[in-house]
Here is the input.
Amino acid sequence: MTDNSVLFLKLLKAAFCSDEALRALSSDSAFRQNVDWDGLLGQISENAMEAIAFDGLQRLNGCDGFHSGLDLEENEDVRYEWMGLNITTEQDFEHYGKVVSDLAGYLASNGAGRILVLKGYGLALNYPYPSHRTVGDIDIYSLDGKSAEIDRLLSRFSGFEKCPSRARHSHATFHEISIENHYCFSDAVNNPRRDKALEQVLVEEALNHSRKIVIDGVEFYVPSANFNAIFLIWHMACHFRLENVSLRQLTDWMNFLKKESSNVDWHLVTEVWSKNYKTEFASMVNGVLIDYFGMDPALVPSLPRNHGNETKFIDFVMEAPPLKIRGIEAVLKYWRRRWNFRITQNESWFRLLMRAVKRHLISKS
Here is the structure.
């Protein structure tokens, strides 16, 4: 791991850890090195963590006796660029919340019923400063079985794409933000034998336990604690298997646990993890958050840990985002990542590769 990566992780830890852990962190020798500011801020920006890393730096600067090479007073260009990025992040979040509200109002007023907003907005509410979490797409699910009606309404806007019949969602652009209208939560549409039971659990949680949010008088829903405890690990594992886990996904999971761990039925969740071969992956993620981000171990169930896998995992996460590749390079990628497949599900990398090829051919037909 590079010096910038080590420093970046410690800034994220400073943003979220306890005051006691922060005092211990403030004496870390990593903060006394000469800083490659262009490289550090570039890596932070690539991971869309500008405001959160800045929060960490601000907390460190508030510690008595903290002296470091991270003195932005002597680096005005970096300081102004970083502050500008933070302002943009906050403005984007404000716009994002308004678009979520406008979308929910538009769909409800046109007979498409209630929507569940996955990931983004609801997870941001768990952060110390919600507007410091960068936003992306808006992922929605119909709580009234009206996904086809939602597609019809979204087709009035630019960029609408009705995905192949075996895909999980459609795409559209609404008020300059990409919308994904999900037909299901898991991959049950492509792998019913493997994911049917998982899908049933998630649907039951969504329909019966989702939480209402109101913005400007418009209602929409965000997932329950049990839903997120199951879905976030499953979704993260899917990314790890085929792409990579982002630092934002890790901090989403940690801040969710800080806010909602006491509301999770851990017996139910760990049973679902076990049946879907996610226990080892969940343990690895939790171990990394405990050791590298200062998360309280009491927030998660005690699971067997493999420290070697955790080190390998965080090194993998800190790699540059992978390029989209095809042909023999794609096959080699699957081979090199066979460890990722073993950790996340009980299927061989070759079988997954063949299914990916089949899905690609279907999408082109």
About this structure: The first helix runs from residue 3 to 16.
